[in-house]
């Protein structure tokens, strides 16, 4: 009886780890487009109060401040997308 009892938490733990891993994958995929949208919005709508906090000149949102930061964040978080594309291409070549 103790053997059956000790296996039950392991099965539940595996399901919880799989769910956590799945959520982490989706969050990783959501990061790059989110930062790209934030860069677009910061460029179109302007920095507002954030521009004064960041020390950016009001008329140059593309030269410094939030827009380049968001673009860099989007580029740094693009690895999950690149992995997804590479995996799909390798699967297509195998078929």
Give a quick precis of the structure.
This protein is mainly α and 95 residues long. It has helices spanning 2-45, 49-54, 66-76, 79-94. It has one domain.
- Helix fraction bin: over 70%
Mean pLDDT: 76
Please, how many domains?
1
- In terms of structural class, how would the helical and strand content be classed? mainly alpha
Main sheet makeup? none
Order of helices and strands: HHHH
| Total beta strands | 0
Per DSSP, what share of the residues sits in E-state strands of 2 or more residues?
under 5%
Total of DSSP H or I helical runs spanning 4+ residues: 4
Quaternary structure: single chain
Low-confidence stretches: none
Q: Can you walk through the features of this model?
A:
The chain has one domain (2-94). It starts with a helix and ends with a helix. It is 81% helix and 0% strand. The protein is mostly helical and 95 residues long. It contains four helices and no strands.
Write a concise keyword list for the protein shown above.
single chain; 95 residues; mainly alpha; 4 helices; 81% helix; flat
Walk me through the topology.
Layout lengths: L1 H44 L3 H6 L11 H11 L2 H16 L1
């Amino acid at each position: 009886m103790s053997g059956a009892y000790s296996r039950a938490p392991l099965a539940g733990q595996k399901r919880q780890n799989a769910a956590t891993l799945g959520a982490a994958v989706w969050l990783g995929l959501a990061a790059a487009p989110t930062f790209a949208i934030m860069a677009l919005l910061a460029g179109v709508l302007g920095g507002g109060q954030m521009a004064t906090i960041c020390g950016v000149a009001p008329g140059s949102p593309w030269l410094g401040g939030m827009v380049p930061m968001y673009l860099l964040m989007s580029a740094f978080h693009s690895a999950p997308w690149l992995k997804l594309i590479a995996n799909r291409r390798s699967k297509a070549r195998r078929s």
